[in-house]
Design brief:
Helix content: 25-40%
Shape: globular
Radius of gyration: 21 Å
Distance between the termini: 41 Å
Structural class: alpha/beta
Strand order of the largest sheet: 6-5-7-8-9
Largest sheet: 5 strands, parallel
Number of strands: 9
Number of helices: 11
Order of helices and strands: HEEEEEHEHHHHHEHHEHEH
Length: about 290
């Protein structure tokens, strides 16, 4: 690919409206003749953030906005990834928000998803995954928890020795957190028989490859942490070439004192995904699309 010589060229190539060339994405339209007509599909209108403007409109940030597409995605190529849907959180606020989301949004959605035949994949963190009888075990525990490289050195990693001045400050509440019950699946979102549990991105990719899954719907916690940063999360799987669709009302982030009133961390993480190669829908839109 010819290297972009200007920032404008880079934006043009990387824009979702321009088919996501720099991100390796092709945006499907409802007229895409490669979709198999005799397969069961779900009708959705995925939202993304459009970097482009219409002809004749000044190309400035103030003139960019959200846009929606019209897709019919094949059930056989679609799965839902449930990220870190745990039974607790050490901070009360995100735990309370997650509990509301699980009961009012995620549980009704899972009923529809399971009845439609869409695969449910549980990604509850490596430590939790390897304890589940549903863990697919594509990798051994030694591979799931690999040894660190020799660089950076161990003293630097652990802030010991000459690197001790660069350690994070001691937090007495960390001792409280460490004494909390071990993380596990939320009691209402446990894997059913036949629903796979993956411990990392390699296992998720291998499972999807084996089952010809190309569309990954994401729900879980936290939006600005594990949803984005896990190796089975949205960004890494986007970079592997999957079409990523976040269910934006089935997630919440970790907020700060300043961001909590407007849920700015959560909304910012959602917008970040919409701006850079991913899409979002709501649970109601999905249920409607499944039943249409």
């Amino acid at each position: 690919m010819k290297k972009a010589s200007t920032r404008r060229e880079f934006i043009t190539r990387s824009s979702l409206a321009g088919a996501g060339t720099m991100l390796g994405i092709k945006v499907f339209s409802s007229n895409d003749n490669r979709m198999i007509a005799d397969k069961k599909t779900i009708s959705i209108k995925p939202r993304y953030y459009r970097w482009h403007v219409d002809k004749g409109v000044e190309w400035i940030e103030a003139n960019t906005r959200h846009a929606q597409l019209d897709w019919k995605i094949p059930v056989s190529q679609t799965a839902v990834v449930l990220v870190d849907v745990w039974q607790r959180h050490y901070i009360k606020d995100p735990e309370a928000r997650a509990e509301v989301i699980i009961n009012t949004k995620l549980l009704p959605l899972l009923v529809s998803l399971r009845s439609s035949g869409i695969k449910i994949i549980h990604a509850p963190s490596p430590e939790v995954a390897v304890t589940s009888p549903n863990w697919i075990k594509i990798q051994t525990k030694e591979q799931v928890f690999p040894k660190r490289d020799v660089w950076p050195p161990e003293d630097f990693f652990s802030s010991a020795g000459e690197y001790k001045p660069f350690a994070m400050p001691y937090e007495p509440m960390e001792e409280v957190r460490q004494k909390m019950p071990p993380l596990t699946f939320h009691p209402k979102i446990v894997p059913l028989e036949g629903e796979p549990v993956v411990a990392n991105g390699v296992e998720l990719h291998e499972y999807c490859k084996k089952n010809k899954i190309a569309f990954l719907l994401y729900a879980g916690f936290n939006t600005n942490a594990c949803i984005i940063n896990r190796d089975y999360g949205t960004i890494r799987m986007r970079d592997r070439g999957y079409r990523i669709i976040l269910i934006r009302d089935c997630t919440t982030g970790m907020e700060s004192k300043d961001t909590q009133p407007a849920m700015a961390q959560t909304n910012g993480a959602i917008l970040f995904l919409e701006m850079f190669g991913c899409f979002t829908v709501t649970s109601d839109e999905l249920i409607t699309g499944i039943n249409s």
